[in-house]
Amino acid sequence: MGDPFDDLNPPPRLMMGPGPINADPRVERAMAMPLLGQFDPAFTEYMNEVMALYRGVFQTENRWTLLVDGTARAGIEACLVSMIEPGDVVLVPIFGRFGHLMCEISRRCGADVRSIETDWGTVFPLERIEAAIKQHQPKVVAMVHGDTSTTMAQPLDGVGAICRAHDALLYCDATATLSGMDLPVDAWQIDAVSAGLQKCLAGPPGSAPVTVNARVEAKVLRRKHIEQGIAPPDAEPGDGPIIRSNYLDLPMLMDYWSEKRLNHHTEATSMLYAARECARIALKEGLPARFARHAVASRAMTAGLRAMGLALFGDQANKMANVTGVVIPEVVEGEAVRSGLLEDFGIEIGTSFGPLAGKIWRIGTMGYNCRKQNVLLCLGALEATLRRNGFTAPAGAGVDAAMAVYDEDGG
Ligand SMILES: Cc1ncc(COP(=O)(O)O)c(C=O)c1O
User: Fold this and answer.
1) I need a surface site. Which of 70, 201, 214, 232 has the fewest CB within 10 A?
2) Does ligand 1 lie within 6 Å of residue 173's CB atom?
3) How far is residue 409 CA from its own chain's centroid?
4) Are residues 278 and 311 both part of a single domain?
5) Which ligand 1 atom sits nearest the alpha carbon of residue 96?
6) Ligand 1 centroid to 214 CA: how many Å?
7) d(C-alpha 330, C-alpha 310), whole Å
């Protein structure tokens, strides 16, 4: 163990895994800004600005676009615990670890969970989702957009319309894709979406942007029970079942984020600064430019890996733009390569979970790290590390192939 009285001095790392990644230095700077009281008019104005900025990031007009304090999972739980009434049928199409997580959270909310599964490395055709909705008639459909465990992105255009036709609410976990892949929330009729900062948004983990529309608002307001110590004298409890979490109760959070400013928890000041800066940077770059930056990095990384003689994991037509799965060659020990990259180059890449543990590496190119220099550094370092571990790729082929993609793209 180190000396706990030493200065905190983390080793320099380039985090090229499935997230978290290196935060944009502007976000770290924003977090160092002076604290304000949670009802200081300057601070409540920042809260309003955050709502407006995230409407832009989510491509929505939803009034209720706010932050849930906690990592991305807190955003998922806030949506699900507020939207799911005990006994509700909830349909979860599972294509990786995070689909299983939604089943587990939904069960804890008292849902009657129905799921469909597809092999890890594949996604669902729209018809299969539609057939399951017709069969199960769910109140809520919960889907992941990009499941980092498999590196696959589920096409979501059309799912919202099917849900509306069957009177189901659609919730989407966009933790891993928001601002890296297109997710027009209103155009795709997604009723509730949550995310995190530590992936394409280039921030630290610890804040979960959430947006919900009027359909969700109507359902959760029926369940509004304001805690006794803060309830105004005229507060009428809703006639629906109480939401089984206080901290993650969306109606109470709405009151806190509205002009009522009805106190709930203390907003996490520095995380709000971070979230504001993440959204400001994303919108200043422009979403189309940001999506294109992630797409070209994905093409360059995959071209480089292939040129090194490595096999990519999963259905490449539906891979996430910001994470690439690589099959670990049989001749090498996957963890030895990851350790070599970290120790010799300060580069972190990920392995995976469940059936893919030890079988694939996951390489992220997202947010602040999604840049030509990092793609090239990572490929060069991987080539050298693989060679030291018994897998020899054609010298320089990975970097050259990635360079060629960037050259074609105009550098
Ligand atoms: C798709 C997806 N959902 C949810 C999460 C959970 O996020 P957090 O660890 O920030 O709670 C992750 C994290 O990797 C993720 O990739």
Assistant:
1) 232
2) yes
3) 27
4) no
5) 1
6) 26
7) 11
CA distance 123 to 314: 9
**What pLDDT is recorded for position 229?**
87
Same domain, 219 and 338: no
Q: Is the pTM of this model over 0.90?
A: yes
Listed residues 221, 253, 283: the one ending a domain: 283
Q: Which domain holds residue 204?
A: 23-283
Read off the pLDDT band of 384 (50, 70, 90): very high
Helix, strand or coil for residue 278?
Answer: helix
Instruction: Identify the residue with better confidence: 5 or 2.
Output: 5
Is the minimum distance from the CB of 347 to ligand 1 under 6 angstroms? no
From ligand 1's centre to the CA of 370, what distance in Å? Answer: 19
Q: What is the CATH number of the domain that holds 360?
A: 3.90.1150.10
Evaluate whether residue 398 is within a structural domain: yes
On whether the CB atoms of residues 221 and 83 are closer than 8 A, the answer is no
- Is residue 15 situated within a structural domain? no
Q: What is the tally of structural domains in the chain?
A: 2
Burial 39-63 (b: 16+ CB within 10 A, else e): eeeebbebbeebbebbbebbbbebb
> pLDDT of 318-368, one tens digit each?
999 999 999 999 999 999 999 999 999 999 999 988 899 999 999 999 999
Q: State which of 175, 210, 353 you would mutate to test the pocket of ligand 1, scoring each by most atoms of that ligand within 8 A of its C-beta.
A: 175
pLDDT in tens, 274-332: 999 999 999 999 999 999 999 999 999 999 999 999 999 999 999 999 999 999 999 99
